[in-house]
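hiii so um. not sure if this is the right channel but i have a protein structure encoded as tokens and i wanna go backwards to a sequence. like what aa goes where. can anyone help
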């Protein structure tokens, strides 16, 4: 390793000058990567010794780690700035991002709220108006709350009389939230301040609200220490946080999530308890029974069970118990045994992904091959109608109150920019309320869905988007994206960021891998724990399909994914480094032996398993990206991305993966890491998002030996 990284940077810049003149990719085998020291750290798991020489990179507060980050960024940004068309891409992205973006309105009393971004505002502004015909006024503008536009604001819950709203405030992309209260009519912020809140709403009852909070973390470990002993508190308006009443805690089980919701009429409280990202218990009590304990409604962590609302003294529950594709049941709390449940909406061949009530009806959202279907039912389960959409795609919304006569929903697809519709609940008519104007012509592109066979013969859905009449000669730059985990579905959505790819004769491909939620709980379970290799096989098969069908070649194929998708990319590029030219593992879970030791990583054990158990250790070690990088292998051109305030998947994962890759990789392709500042598990504002996207597309096209048409 070179102990003078500036020499390496100088060499790179010299090569950039020559390569720009030749129009060729700079020879990355001449890179001199920053020196990363190795320490003698060996862990023993069930008799197996595992080296961890870059353990020191886990301490993000250490000065030597900060210096390492700085040197890595110097190298990466020197490389990126040397790409001759980077500025052209950034200019085009800035142009196409500069359009008004709205959220669907939602009602609170006599007011409607919605968000709007004029185009290049770092954060969307929250607006309020009296009635649908009222003049919109700014309710909160997050852009005024920090010089760099990295403060985010969310509306977390309204008091029953709609006089107050709880807002959540986060900074620099962190998952930590501070709760505050605003009076709606005056737009005045009260003095209430509640800190160290994470993954929590605000469930109002009377003159206060319930929330989920943590103890203050040790100073310096706010972004890395394991979050444990979540508790439920009740905050009375105007009181200090230290006076908040402790409502529920479970010190015998420190690694559990706790959450509180209420029925719309505020008559009942629900306590949701889970040990991870799926499977939960549900408890309840009447909201006026202050001194009583919560009573069990559904126990055990095998299934997912969520409250929708109450019908009198019975509860509508959305569940996959005895229904892998989910159903809706009516549960009598006086006799809550499963054998006594009354089925309201039975399970279908398609997966029911969520349900809610508005206007006295049930609205159920299903996925048919990852495309949205929405049905309106009576509360007793009689179907009223299917809502018709303008094309195959994704719809979201259909929320509101019992007395509402209409609601809103948003529809979009790969080539259909988001459009907001007003839906008349009585007659089922949809009226276009607001459409999106983007600086490109959607009619120039085509989106389709195909099905390919994975290694074991399972049929996997794959969305493909490209220009109409684009000749498929096996040489198209192709960007293959997927996630494959946590019951999360990859559905059609419009993305302005992909326009750069599509305008430059590229192909966007999105695979619906096992582990996701596209086909219900069985599909999810077929890609988790000991079935995790299915996810990687599905992704590899997608790449092979795109090559076989002449969309692209190994030299023109990039793979990408974030978070669990970053794990996917890391695993697949170490298993099949020959199959891809470019890899983008973003904020990935790369160290599968230690992921559960940071922040909320313990909550993923239900999905991955834990290295603390021998059978799971062996399985995790078999695909852990960090531990499967081999000496002397030529890996794809890789741009690892992470951020300093990511307290969900801590940056140590990416640090250790990048250091190991730089140590062992041998070949022409650059293997770099880009570490964003004041960002978290994703870009913390629009300007950072545009910069990251420009770097990504420039890196991809450059390493494929291509230019862009700008």
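sure thing!! here u go:
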């Amino acid at each position: 390793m070179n102990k003078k990284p500036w020499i390496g940077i100088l060499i790179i810049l010299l090569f950039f000058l020559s390569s720009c003149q030749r129009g060729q990719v700079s020879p990355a085998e001449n890179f001199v990567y920053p020196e990363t020291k190795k320490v003698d750290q060996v862990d023993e798991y069930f008799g197996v010794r595992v080296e961890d020489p870059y353990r020191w990179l886990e301490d993000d507060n250490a000065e030597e780690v900060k210096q390492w980050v700085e040197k890595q960024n110097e190298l990466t940004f020197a490389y990126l700035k040397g790409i001759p068309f980077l500025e052209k891409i950034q200019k085009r992205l800035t142009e196409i991002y500069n359009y008004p973006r709205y959220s669907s309105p939602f009602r609170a009393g006599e007011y409607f709220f919605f968000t709007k971004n004029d185009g290049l505002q770092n954060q969307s502004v929250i607006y309020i108006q009296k009635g649908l015909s009222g003049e919109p006024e700014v309710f909160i503008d997050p852009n005024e709350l920090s010089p760099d536009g990295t403060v985010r604001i969310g509306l977390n819950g309204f008091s029953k009389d709609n006089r107050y709203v709880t807002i959540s405030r986060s900074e620099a992309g962190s998952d930590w939230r501070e709760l505050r209260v605003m009076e709606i009519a005056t737009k005045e912020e009260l003095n209430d301040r509640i800190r160290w809140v994470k993954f929590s709403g605000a469930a109002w009852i009377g003159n206060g609200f319930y929330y989920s909070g943590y103890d203050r973390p040790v100073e310096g470990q706010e972004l890395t220490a394991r979050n444990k002993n979540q508790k439920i508190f009740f905050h009375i308006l105007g009181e200090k946080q230290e006076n908040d009443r402790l409502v529920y805690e479970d010190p015998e089980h420190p690694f559990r999530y706790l959450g509180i919701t209420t029925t719309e009429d505020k008559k009942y409280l629900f306590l949701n308890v889970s040990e991870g990202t799926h499977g939960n218990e549900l408890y309840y009590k009447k909201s006026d029974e202050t001194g009583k304990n919560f009573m069990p409604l559904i126990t055990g962590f095998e299934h997912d069970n969520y409250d929708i609302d109450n019908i009198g003294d019975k509860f509508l529950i959305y569940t996959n118990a005895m229904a892998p594709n989910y159903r809706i049941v009516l549960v009598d709390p006086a006799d809550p045994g499963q054998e006594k449940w009354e089925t309201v909406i039975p399970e279908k061949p398609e997966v029911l992904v969520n349900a809610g009530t508005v206007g006295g009806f049930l609205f159920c959202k299903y996925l048919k091959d990852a495309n949205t279907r929405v049905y309106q039912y009576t509360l007793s389960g009689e179907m009223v109608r299917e809502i018709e959409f303008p094309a195959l795609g994704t719809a979201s919304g259909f929320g509101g109150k019992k007395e509402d006569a209409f609601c809103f929903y948003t529809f979009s697809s790969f080539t259909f920019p988001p459009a907001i519709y007003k839906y008349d609940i009585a007659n089922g008519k949809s009226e276009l309320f607001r459409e999106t104007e983007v600086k490109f012509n959607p009619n120039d592109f085509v989106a389709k869905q195909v099905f390919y066979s994975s290694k074991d013969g399972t049929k996997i859905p794959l969305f493909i988007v490209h220009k109409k009449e684009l000749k498929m000669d096996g040489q198209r730059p192709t960007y293959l994206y997927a996630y494959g985990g946590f019951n999360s579905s990859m559905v059609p959505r419009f993305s302005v960021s992909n326009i750069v790819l599509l305008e430059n004769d590229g192909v966007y491909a999105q695979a619906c891998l096992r582990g996701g939620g596209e086909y219900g709980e069985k599909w999810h379970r077929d890609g988790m724990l000991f079935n995790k290799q299915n996810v990687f096989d599905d992704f590899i098969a997608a790449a092979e399909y795109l090559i076989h069908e002449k969309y692209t070649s190994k030299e023109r194929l990039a793979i990408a994914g974030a978070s669990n998708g970053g794990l996917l990319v890391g695993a697949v590029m170490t298993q099949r480094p020959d199959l891809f030219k470019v890899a983008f593992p973003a904020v990935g879970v790369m160290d599968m032996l230690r992921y559960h030791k940071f922040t909320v990583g313990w909550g993923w054990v239900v999905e991955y398993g834990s290295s603390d158990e021998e059978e799971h250790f062996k399985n995790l070690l078999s695909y852990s990206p960090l531990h499967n990088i081999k000496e002397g292998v030529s890996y794809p051109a890789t741009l690892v991305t992470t951020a300093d305030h990511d307290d969900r998947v801590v940056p140590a994962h990416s640090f250790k993966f990048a250091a190991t890759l730089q140590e062992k990789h041998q070949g022409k392709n650059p293997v770099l890491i880009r570490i964003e500042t004041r960002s978290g598990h994703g870009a913390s504002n629009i300007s950072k998002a545009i910069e990251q996207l420009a770097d990504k597309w420039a890196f991809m096209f450059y390493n494929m030996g291509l230019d862009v048409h700008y």
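oh and The domain at 5-95+440-703 is CATH 3.40.50.1820 (Rossmann fold).
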